[in-house]
Amino acid sequence: MLKSYYSNEYIEAGCDEAGRGCLAGPVVAAAVIFDKSYKNTLLDDSKKVKEALRYKLRGEIEEHALAFAVGIVSNEEIDRINILNASFLAMHRAINQLKIEPQLLLIDGNRFKPFPNIPHQCIIKGDGKYLSIAAASILAKTYRDDIMNTLDKEFPDYDWKHNKAYATIKHRMAIQKYGLTKYHRKTFHLKNQLKLDL
Question: Other CB atoms closer than 10 Å to residue 195's CB: what's the count?
């Protein structure tokens, strides 16, 4: 089972994002605060959890978390500030919305733009080590998937319902055939992204 906390002294918020490597749509981040006593043997990195369980866990997280929030940065904003800064901004937006102010931020990954007046700890593969970061990864992933499922109805040719705007062959070939939509990230190097490794 994943660890319940990094430090017993502080109110911790786990933070993670989803959609960083996609060709379209927003990047979505979440922040989650649990009580130190919270346990959940099913909670894990969202990439290791099947879709049906992810949505079940989302309900559990939202019911049992002391506080949680989701932050979204649009594809237009990503184009303006780049995907790395957009990922940090999405986390900041999530942290800003928490009903409880954390005293320590647990960040999945190795880089972060400091949040004002709250120290942070970057943890590589943290979504597979700490419950709060895993929970944030589940929320970020499911909320972003919901967005892409909705956008798929507007642009069904790109198969976002299934690929969530990652650079699958079907998605890349749709871009070649139909061009970019208003939801695509124009600053991605599409020349390289469109090379098909068949």
Answer: 9
